[in-house]
Amino acid sequence: MFTSIKQKLTFIYILLIAIPLFMINFFAVESMQESILREIEVNALKTANIVSSISRNNIQQPLALKRSINQYMTGGGARTLVLDNVGRVMVDTSNLLENTVINNQEVRQALQMKEKLGYYQTDKYILQVAVPIIETTGDSRSAIGAVLVSVSVEEAFRTIHDFRQRLMILSVTAAFLAMMVAVFAGRSISKPIVSLSKVAKKIGEGQLGKTVSIESRDEIGQLAENFNYMSKELHRIDKGRTQFIGDVSHELKTPLASMKALIDSLLYGEDDIEVYREYLGDMDSEIDRLSALVGSLLTLTKIEETGIRKDIFSLKEMVEESVKILNPLAQKYGVEVVTMIEDTPNIICDGDRIKEVFINLIDNAMKYRDVEKAQNRVYIKGRRKKYSYEITIEDNGIGIKEEELQSIFEKFYRTDLSRSRDTGGAGIGLSIVSRVVKLHHWELEVKSKIKEGTSITIVIPNTSLKNSL
């Protein structure tokens, strides 16, 4: 029926306005009509009952009764008839129906000792009220006649009709204005939704990063903000994916090109066995780099696909195992590893992944040592806070520039490209660290100064702590 949300909203607004207006019109007119006619009916019944009381003792004396009624009805404006017990008119204040028998519904009901009223329309609207003239003899009561009062209600119906017309004009005017407001409201509400739809279509066509300009602060404004955030994130993710593919290609291409050059040298000119050994050693190093790169990529992919599996592990044991694995590397680089963990707790985590986090962080701290310093140290500190437990890997190495701190957890990011090549780094280790920590809903804090060193703190909230050992 409706093809747009604007039409639906407009229709709903019109209904919400039209239905109350109709009900107000109906009940207002009905209430006014009931009020006006009720007052006329009460006055007519009052007049009829008074005439009935006057007639009770004078019904057999029509002339005297007529004089009494005329005296009472002076200026009354109502026509009064007094009838005997067979319906014959004894008195007619208009002198038209005397001695005529009337047998309408109101008279019959009155002669049965019941009050009755009814509305009639001839050339004008008339109210007829009939009441019995009751005679009481001992314990018995009987109707000896009836009083029929006719009152013109033409003026009352004209007043009601005029009121209905005025109310209708006001209602139509109000409905028209309300319809304009409904159209405007429907358009203003649907406009941002239409804008969202258009931008969503562009995003579906591949134009990631497109945003919609909506300044409202209501739910639609919040939806627009979330939509813009989603669009920017999709653009960022897509850009990262493109960059990721390019970085992987570059990282794979470099060792492959190096091995290709070495193999070509062996195939087309080198016969010395020592040169062969040297070249084969270089190729072995490049293959190790490739294996490490592929292993890191597989680890990152596996984390994204399978997530983490939590259990309860000893933080102290995981740190000690990580340090033990890296002891040969520490001895090779001449780095002293100092463990200073207080109040070691059990933590709820994926043990293998967190151990991998520690290995990556300690390994980085060793590789990026400052060779100009006489003594290189890596400190592993653990301390309990009020709402968390913090474990910090701190070194006195070369440090990181302040503008690079926010980028070190991105895939393939290296602060020193040539040094990373020498250490075999591909820039994936810290991205694995960041992803694992985020999956645990923990936090990472990084501080660093050039030539002073770097500290990376893992903040473990109390919700991930089991107890103390």
Describe the structure.
55% of the residues lie in helices and 20% in strands. It is built from ten helices and 13 strands. Mean pLDDT is 83; it is low at 417-424. The protein has three domains: 5-160, Beta-Lactamase; 204-249, no CATH class; 307-468, Histidine kinase-like ATPase, C-terminal domain (Heat Shock Protein 90). A hairpin with a 2-residue loop joins β4 (125-137) and β5 (140-152).
Give a topology summary.
Layout: H1 5-55, H2 62-72, E1 79-84, E2 89-92, H3 105-111, E3 116-121, E4 125-137, E5 140-152, H4 154-204, H5 219-267, H6 273-306, E6 311-314, H7 315-333, E7 335-341, E8 345-349, H8 351-367, E9 376-384, E10 388-395, H9 417-423, H10 429-439, E11 443-449, E12 453-461, E13 465-468
Parallel strand pairs: 7-9
Antiparallel strand pairs: 1-2, 1-5, 3-4, 4-5, 6-8, 8-13, 9-10, 10-12, 11-12
Helix pairs in contact: 1-4, 4-5, 5-6, 6-10, 7-8, 8-10
Strand content of the residues, in percent?
15-25%
CATH H-level name of the largest domain... which superfamily? Answer: Histidine kinase-like ATPase, C-terminal domain
* Major sheet attributes: 5 strands, antiparallel
Structure summary, number of beta strands: 13
How many structural domains does the protein architecture include? 3
Straight-line N-to-C gap? 70 Å
